[in-house]
Design brief:
With 60 residues, the protein is an all-beta fold. The protein has strands at residues 2-4, 7-10, 16-19, 23-25. Helix content is 0%, strand content 23%. It has a two-stranded antiparallel sheet. It has a two-stranded antiparallel ribbon with strand order 2-3.
């Protein structure tokens, strides 16, 4: 969720998170490592394919 700044967010434990940026992305999925700010953790990430294991290699 994008919000025009500056922003103060009161968290559940009473702490206040502040940002003076002109636009702030707030996390609504709670996956962010920097909650309450969004770090795009909600996006699907693909793992690189691992090289085939020795037992999976085809040999003639």
């Amino acid at each position: 969720m994008l919000v025009e700044g500056p922003v103060e967010v009161v968290q559940e434990d009473g702490r206040i998170a502040r940002s003076d940026r002109p636009v702030v992305a707030l996390c609504t999925c709670r996956r962010s490592l920097i909650f309450p700010w969004c770090d795009t953790s909600h996006r699907g990430r693909k793992r690189p394919k691992a090289p085939p294991q020795a037992s999976e290699r085809h040999t003639d």
